[in-house]
Amino acid sequence: MKIGLLFLLFLILLIQTNAFSQNNLKELDNLLNDAYKLDLFSGVVLVADKENVQFLKTFGYADWENQTKNLTDTKFNIGSIGKLFTQILIAQLIQEGKLNLTDNLKLLYPLYNNEYDEKITIKHLLGFSAGLGDYFMIEEFEMHPDNYRSVDALLSIIKKQPLLYEPGTSREYSNSSYVVLGGIIEKLTGKTYQENLKERILNPLAMNNSGFIYKDTKSTSAAKGFIINPDGTKESTYERMPNVPTPAGGMFSTAEDLLKLDRSLMNDNVLLNDEHKVLLLNRFNTDIKISFAELLAKPDFGMGVAGGSPGWNAVYDQNVGNKYTVIILSNFDFGAEVLIDRINSVLKEEKYPQLKMSAGRFVYEKIKEKGAEDFSANYKEYLSDYPIEDDGMLNRIGYQFLNKGMMDEAIAVFIINTKYFPDIANTYDSLGEAYMLKGEKKLALENYKKSLELNPNNKNAEMKINELKEE
Fold first, then answer.
1. What span, in angstroms and rounded, lies between the C-alpha atoms of 151 and 300?
2. pLDDT tens, residue by residue, 388-414
3. Long-range contacts of 192-199 (CB under 8 A, 24+ apart)
4. Cα dist. 277→263, 267, 466 in Å?
5. pLDDT of the residue at 198
6. Residue 313: phi, psi to the nearest 5?
7. What is the pLDDT of residues 187-240, one digit of tens each?
8. What is 289-337 written as a DSSP string?
């Protein structure tokens, strides 16, 4: 089963520091150099206090294949941080009296032409509780992403997706919800989402290095995303990933441009007045009654947004209570998220866990040294320093082996994943795929059946079972 995209994260951080010493900044530099040497990070890091940029440095290459260095004006895909821009546009329309959080699709943008249009509200869409899924999982989009550059085109396939649950009864991360919000923005303004983005946010803040970049857009200042394979080789995701920016994410920006956005949200009313900045920063929770000044005075208040997809990772971390901002943009998988907690620890002058090689590299080196059979027998000992919190980590490693044609290694990793997570259908689905590619059809069928047993809605497993039975 294909690996999902990485998704948007909100972080409330409790930081207790007010200044940066030279020791802080030197230790930060050492941390980032270590991350670069371990192939954990390529990109740019910016740290600013309330008044000035205190640290701005680039590492690695915008294009590792051609050894083109990352620069401070290199543009990076910021993934789901783009949702913050959509949230700002929605907050602006609320401020202008053109929209309310309780407005529904029937009033604003009839999409389904049934009872769901009346049930789904703006607040549901903003908070991932509308019941919509993820357009990245729609086969039509996956096969021909360049056919869906406009919001209308995307909505034409999104509306065919069945809802995952009754609106307002649950919560599940949804890229499709933010495309619907983009459609509402377009209808209310009579302009495209991109025009709104430029006219309402980018141009007023002089964010001249930010915007939508498509594969066929000629840009000499945009980085390429790279995956680090278990053997240490760097593989560009440029050709094989659907890089289509939408209201849900995927726009490009620079660290200095994102700092302009940060400064406006904290210091002026160019984008939003104080009342609606509070609404935005409190995630559209109207039950929180507080002024903007009171919000900024809270010592524990902070807002962070992260985004990523294969080859990309970005974090914008605003520590309001402690008056500093961290922006990390990376053209490596997880390059930003592996660093953000450690950077905050450096700035707090606290100890933090030392960096180590990625789990994928470790597994590769251990299997190379000991063999797949030995690794399978001793995996608990070998992985004792690598917390396995969910099935995603080993699943990604297994697919990296699979994509390199290393079948036995992939199978060993997928088997271990089923041992860690015996009740997760996806672990058996992935193992079934590996066996199928190796030609071991009986074992493939056995694992696809197990996956379908655990998840009767697994259409992929059902299809593979039928294929294998027919052979």
1. 38
2. 888 988 998 999 899 889 999 999 999
3. 192/150, 192/151, 193/151, 193/246, 193/247, 196/89, 197/85, 197/89, 197/251
4. 12, 11, 53
5. 98
6. -160, 135
7. 999 999 999 999 999 999 999 999 999 877 777 799 999 999 888 999 998 876
8. ---HHHHHH-TT--EEEEEEETTEEEEEEEEGGGTEEEEEEESBTTTTH
